[in-house]
Amino acid sequence: MITSSKSSIRRIIALPSKLIEELEQLVEQKVISCVDCGICEAVEHYLAQSKHEQYNRQIIEAAKDHRYMERTLDMQVSFRHVDFEVRVQ
Question: Which of 21, 45, 61, 88 has its CA 20 to 30 A from that of 51?
Fold first, then answer.
């Protein structure tokens, strides 16, 4: 079941009771303000980490493309002059 409001979507999900119990303990210890906040923080962290890992995999793949590397290195050389000019000013 999914319902939505302007800033969030409500979705029923199943989580292991152990995780909910641990989140409730964190609420009691005032580490997080509520269980929902803990879940949101965890999902945000997971997504950021996943995006970072995906970016790293893409960079590794791109590095295997010799034309990509040539273009990248050519641009790096081209911008050295600009970088030097900015440092001098």
Answer: 21
